[in-house]
Prior knowledge:
The protein is flat and about 40 Å long. By secondary structure, the protein is mostly helical. The longest helix is centred in the N-terminal third of the chain and has 21 residues. It contains 4 helices and no strands.
Amino acid sequence: QYFNESIMETIVTETNKYGSVLLTMTSRASKFANWFDTTVEEMYIFLGTIILMGLVGKNSLKKYWSNNPIINTPFFKVLFSQNRFLNLVR
Length: 90
C-alpha cells in the first residue's frame, strides 16, 4: 500500500532514465551493457526481493545467487538473474 501505482510508475521512469544514461557511459564489456528498461511489474518484484533479502540474511548480494550447496537459496534465481538484479540496484 505504500508503493501505489503512481509512485511505482515514477520509480520506473526515473530508473529507466538513469539506466539509459549509464548505458551510454559504459563499455560493451560491462555487465551493465545489457541494460533494458524495467516495468512496474518488475519493480514490484524487485522491491519484494529486497524485503525477502532482509529475512534471508547473507553477507553479500552475490551470495543470494550462489551455487554453493551450503548457502544456496534457489528462490532468488527464479525472481532475477544476478546481473539483472545488480543492474537494477545500480
